[in-house]
Task: structure prediction
Amino acid sequence: MSLTSRIILSMVLAMAGGVLLKLINDAGFLGEIGQLILIDFFTEGLLDVVGQIFIASLRLVIVPLVFFSLVCGVVSISSTSRIGTISLKTLSLYLLTTAIAISVALTFALIFKPGIGIDLALPTAFESTSAPSLKEVLINIFPTNPVAAMAEGNMLQIIVFSLLFGIALKSLGSAGDSLKNSFELINNVILSLVRMLIELAPYGIFALLFSLFAVQGFGMIADLAKYFFLLVFVLIFHAFVTYGSLLSLLARLNPIRFFMKVRSLAVFAFSTSSSSATMPVTLDTVKNNLGVRSSIGSFTVPLGATINMDGTAIMQGIATVFISQAYNIDLSMIDYLMVILTATLASIGTAGVPGVGLIMLAMVLEQVGLPVEGIALIIGVDRLLDMTRTAVNVCGDAMVSCVVAVSEDEFDSDTFHTCLLYTSPSPRDRG
Result:
């Protein structure tokens, strides 16, 4: 059974089992012994331990994942004759679309209020923190002690230090090759650790959701559905409206033709749920279907697979509002600006593997003082949403590649306007 199937199965079993246990308990059928075994020992004891360990595991990899992934992303930038201009355009577009994505997500979430009515109690270990001023936010972005920033989990400072470190390492040229290789190896080890955690996700999901539904009952099902469909709607809206508008305004290209030519790419990304695994297909699509020259595509696509996480940013925005409303925590405008800034910068360090968005969500929640335990509310449906997010991400990679290629006169219009009936990735590309 695939990971997706196991996660869905664990989610269904947890919700059904939790609701059933709540109904039995509310009806008074358990008795004193049953209450002791099923509620005190199993639900609030064993399952709570498993769930908390899973949450702690997500927190475990946040700092090393951001640091090493971001440094490796910076030093992997290939050298071309116009590397400075191309880099600035590409980075600016990726960060712009991410900022737009999370802004749109926050707007729709505040309008439709997916978390209103849940009314969860705050975890006992959670302490509310006052929102810093905008001046403090800007000053605190830059670390005075990077080691202390990592120890404290100050993600904004870690991201800034990682960017500066990566640029400095890149400037060493061949002299820094040994360190670059070491960072790549460590990054691969961390990604392997992430994959191990994701493989354990069904068990963590079961433990978290069973306890949750054993307390909340049927009411959570409708609330999760509201969150799920709102997120899907915003993802589709961002893909067609934001990407389509940027294509039309910046590159004077037909969005309809663009989406027709990337449909097979989107399907592949949806099935793999990984921007990195889809990268060979993305490269083939932007070069052979869209008309982006290799000098541009070989740079924009790998960089996009590393830092372009619009779908993840949308999830973070909606999930943040959802969790704040569920726990009845009011966020200030400064908090929402912090979410936009944190998620935008964090997208640079988000690795293109399934499930990492949840880890980045934990970082965003901590940054604005929300309980990380709130991830339990949405983690059960996140695997399905992750597939949609990946499809949006790779479409964004292709869109930015087209815009940069047009601006640098490295775009083949004939290829773009050639009719394409259907294209499927070759076996070589799949590997």
User: Anything to note?
Assistant: DSSP finds 20 helices and no strands in the chain. The chain has one domain: 3-430. Residues 219-251 form the longest helix (33 residues). The radius of gyration is 22 Å.
